[in-house]
Amino acid sequence: MVPFGSPSDNPSDPSGNPVGHLEQALHAARALVLADLVAGRVAEADVVSLVEESVTERRWWVQQWPEGAGFVAGLVAQDVQDALLERYGRWPLCPVCATGDPHALDVEPELGPDPHWVCHKAGVKVASVGNLGSATGGAGAT
Prior knowledge:
It contains four helices and three strands, in the order H-H-H-E-E-E-H.
């Protein structure tokens, strides 16, 4: 058995260099938000660019506060949600409320681990960030 923390537990970048904890958190955040965008069928090139912009900005943030690495996925999700609102409209739309005006889900906690999408109108947790497809029946639903 290979002990935890051995080189085989540490992913490598394409050049073979070990990827640090902070970069792993950023890569994971990118993957989770992209999964939600794919589930919502909005992962167009310009939208994916919004994810990349957020990851770049959050890289500086997490370098300044390494203890916040576990919060990066929720922050990237919020960044992308805000950028989409400015350019295109609300995302992701709530799959829970069938009546009334369409409204977006929110990320909770705003700054904390285990970010998830919630509907404040219905008062329910809809899905973890990265698992929106399971709630909406979108791509990646299980």
